[in-house]
From TrEMBL:
InterPro entries: Cation/H_exchanger_CPA1 (IPR018422), Cation/H_exchanger_CPA1_bac (IPR004705), Cation/H_exchanger_TM (IPR006153). Gene3D superfamilies: 6.10.140.1330. Signal peptide: none annotated. Residues 12-401 form the Cation/H+ exchanger transmembrane domain. Pfam families: Na_H_Exchanger (PF00999). Belongs to the monovalent cation:proton antiporter 1 (CPA1) transporter (TC 2.A.36) family. This is Na+/H+ antiporter. It is a multi-pass membrane protein. NCBIfam families: a_cpa1. The lineage of its organism: Bacteria, Bacillati, Actinomycetota, Actinomycetes, Micromonosporales. Its main location: membrane. The chain crosses the membrane at residues 27-45, 54-76, 82-106, 113-135, 182-203, 215-247, 268-285, 297-321, 342-365, 377-400. Keywords: Antiport, Cell membrane, Ion transport, Membrane, Sodium, Sodium transport, Transmembrane, Transmembrane helix, Transport.
Amino acid sequence: MESLFPVVVFLAIATLGAALARRLGLLAPIVLVVLGLALSFVPGFPQIELDPELVLVGILPPLLYVAALETSVPAFKNNIRPILLLAVGLVLFTAFVVGLVLHLLLPQLPFAICLALGAVVAPPDAVAATAVARRVGLPRRVVTILEGESLVNDATALVLLRVATMATVGSAVGADKIAIEVLRSTGGGILIGALGALVFGFLHRRITDPLLDNALSLIIPFAVVFTAEHLHASGVVAVVVTGLVLGHKLPQLLSAASRLQIGAFWRLVRFLLEGLVFLLVGLQLREVLRDLDEPIGSLILITFAVLATVFLTRFIWLFPATYLARLVPRVRRRDARPSPKFPIIIGWAGMRGVVTLAAALALPLTLADDEPYPRALLIWLAFAVIVFTLVGQGATLPLVARRLKLPQDDPVQDALSAAAVQQQASKAAQDRLDELADSAPDAVVDRLRRAVEDRTNMAWERLGGDERETPSQAYGRLRQEMIDAERDVFRAARDSGRIPEEVLVQAYRDLDLEESLLREVEK
């Protein structure tokens, strides 16, 4: 009871914080981190010491899994070059530069532990990128690149952190051991992820009960991660591969009822976990400061140097990576030279999050031969990077996006493409109906024809302006009033005892499904 109470309190605060952020028009992650920072100094407020194992194996897998499920595999493949340049190249570059700067400032620290901190602060966080980028309204390709980077870069950073930690505690680390570690972590993660997609895809295809499908979807990220970690492969890579493959094939694997239920379930899980994660990050401030004993002048200098390095290395890497690649004719033909606005906004969106803090807390307690080192300082530096990038850059990202006036995705083109494909889909539906028309009464066939025509007309109506109400909007408005009236009758009948509760529940379910469809049409 006592151990459960703080969790309930944190979830309630995270929910209220997210609601407050929406009311104020602010980004929820920033509000929750600031709220956590403030609550960390409230006397008597419950504190939770963040367990890195809980984050990396308990919280991160489901968030990575749902992000991978929603990632477009064709868009991911089309942007694989910039994604890998950021997720692998930039992470390694940032880690080595941060490690070098820290080693120059603290020459008594071995370079290996400095490099370990560089690996900790190098990767932008998957949770932060997903939570912030979409809400800011960035162009679709920018969001794809940021999300793709955040899905892959944790694996690069954690492999590098593992190698640096091995060197820190005195293990011999040569090129052969590094190659084996990379092959085992990355290659093993890909194989386990592909195997997970094969096994769980088979199970999803055989399951017909939406509740069982939903339960399986919750088990998948943990099963894949536990298997990968047991075999010393990358759990991050494994869960991302499984999520990408299953997400791409989900329309063929699940029934309509399962897809609707799983979609609603994962929206709730992501909302709660994201809110809890950002709140917990802020709440760690008191714990981070507790063991810190560095002189204030030295602390400010080192913190500023690391923050500046993390911020600048992203831009130093991005511009050459963006424009030097266009010197290759094949790249230039496939991908035109972008405006400088794009590397600027991608550079500004490098928010760190809970993975950075969890990795920092996983740093070794001592160096080789049990030699002590300022571990609390390194944890503070990681925490400072999180707060600076998430609160500083995250809060100003909407303003930067507006000032840059990035070209937005054309809603008219999207509507035109959707209408054209809907026209083809309606033609296919009409052809199938013509084949089966003799097996049903004429009235039923005519009703189905009208339904297909209405769906096609609705798609083309979206190309019109917003000056007047379309026929579909008028239908939705009037049908909503009719649904409300039907609900009143069923509720009155239940209250008077004319129908049992079960009849009311079924009637409400049917009306709720129709209303939810009306809401989707209005979007």
